[in-house]
Amino acid sequence: MKKVVKFGGSSLASTRQFKKVGEIIRSDKTRRYVIPSAPGKRNDKDEKVTDMLYACYDAAAAGAAYKKILSRIKDRYLEIINGLDLDLNLDYEFDRIEENFAKGIGRDYAASRGEYLNGIVMASYLGYEFIDAAEVIFFDDQGNFEAELTHRELSERLEHVERAVIPGFYGSKHDGSIKTFSRGGSDVTGSIVAKAIHADLYENWTDVSGFLVADPRIVKDPQVIETITYKELRELAYMGASVLHEDAIFPVRKEGIPINIRNTNRPEDKGTLIVESTCRKPRYTITGIAGKRGFCAINIEKAMMNAEVGFGRKVLGVFEKYGISFEHMPSGIDTMTIMVHQDEFEEYEQSVIAGIHRAVEPDSVDLESDLALIAVVGRGMKATRGTAGRIFSALAHAHINVKMIDQGSSELNIIIGVKNADFEGAIRAVYDIFVTLEM
Ligand code: ASP
User: Fold this and answer.
1) Range scoring the smallest mean pLDDT among 234-238, 257-261, 405-409
2) Which member of 124, 275, 333, 407 has the lowest number of beta carbons within 10 Å of its beta carbon?
3) Which of 12, 35, 186, 205 to mutate for ligand 1's pocket (most ligand atoms within 8 Å of CB)?
């Protein structure tokens, strides 16, 4: 049994957090490959080391004073090193960083040092081998991740390494320069390493006990999702639910390696297991609810629209011309509605309307703005009758008017459109009917 364990910034923000992480790793011998993030915030007012590194480098590049910020960054590591009683000195590393900043080495290098240094500290603390991600994770000259090359080199390198720490978030291009993934990218590194060693499990340790059924800012103390499939996760993530970097899914999904989201501050919690497919029945009819505000509906009406072949294509062609992607397209016999992101649409609003008039000569084109879309997602809905009925009666009881409904053909999700102002009320009503009532 082999596990890859990734720890996020808040799990490694201080000596205290490092000790918790040490205990977690030592309590299970199969936790053999460790991916650390850079130290995150210790409290709400604190700064993430990655943000400090960006600010420090930007100051250096602008010719402004930067050494003070660099010494504050160094202090963050010294606090951890001293707190853990490690025999480790980072002077050499910081001198090199300072030299490289002065040379204008680049923002990606700067940001990556947070993980790099934390990797050195972690390896020293655990007594594991340190492997610089620049030697095993590769990007092409355009900065695209090179999956095959990385997989080959990384598998080969790790084949004879029993235990190792590999810092998250970055790798290198062919010219040796450092390149990072987008923010939160240590999740991606963890996934790549899990694939390379054919891990049985990829544990992703963070500061929440897994994915929640609904946003805790909207629903008080929502339940944790025990098991979720990749497809369900994608639906929820697309609608704004976030715990994991989107690109972290692809490497492990193909290999059938499950991801387990765990809480460093509550290691006794089982967290959320993300799997390709499962026979496990979900605890509730729905797996999760997520949503976004800020949509606009373009309602097009034309008598005998149904008889006009090519009507839909011509309308969508107008949106394509202006590079606007549409989210949903509910239609009636003589009506058709296109839902788009309001901020994407606003700039071209009048041109799009004029374009539709020219393309299909409709009787009318109306706009309705400030709408929200809510996705109710669950593999359990397929086997259950009356899910849509329950959603609508819950919303009716909450005096919420439903503007649009769209059920995906996979029966994995039902999308509802409501006014922005009803967004939170609608989420609460759906949560109550499926979770509170089914508890
Ligand atoms: N430290 C990086 C960030 O703050 C990457 C990560 O934490 O995954 O985005």
Assistant:
1) 405-409
2) 333
3) 186
